Amino acid sequence: MESNDPKHQTTSLIFKGHVEKVVTITPAQVRLIGTEGQDLTAKVRIVPSKEYPFKLLSVNAMDPKLFTVDVEEVAGKNGQEYELTVKNVTSQKGRYSSAISIGTDSKIRPQMRIQVTLYIRKKA
Fold it and tell me: From CA 89, how far away is CA 91, in angstroms rounded?
């Protein structure tokens, strides 16, 4: 912070706070890596915190030409958890990047995104 006081022109301010986790997403990003023509699959676990439970309202692949995403509700330690299954649609050689868009009924985190990367190598 700056001041017009010649003896104390600058002062440091320290803010402290407690950050609570609303959700755990494992893994935080999806990477599908393989060769042309190969079926690629990844699983993602979404675990709402016990203190801030929520339900998934929508789960969509941002680019459905690259991959699909299916959702399954599963029982967890603290209540409902979600397992996403991500599968490639394209199997053509290249590097692709997109995301999964997630809508929830949470007032704290009504929207979430999970980054998805596909790396498909040329078949040998």
Answer: 6
Read out DSSP for 75-106?
A: EETTEEEEEEEEEES--SSEEEEEEEEEEES-
Per-residue pLDDT of 8-54, as tens digits, reads: 788 888 889 988 899 999 999 999 999 999 999 999 999 999 999 99
Helix then strand then coil, % of the chain, to nearest 5? 0, 55, 45
User: pTM for the whole thing?
Assistant: 0.83
Give the C-alpha separation, 67 to 75, whole Å: 26
Cα–Cα distance for residue pair 91/84, rounded to 1 Å = 20
CATH class of the region 23-121: mainly beta
Cα separation, 37 vs 16, in Å, equals 52
Report, in angstroms and rounded to the nearest whole number, the Rg of the chain calculated over CA atoms. 21
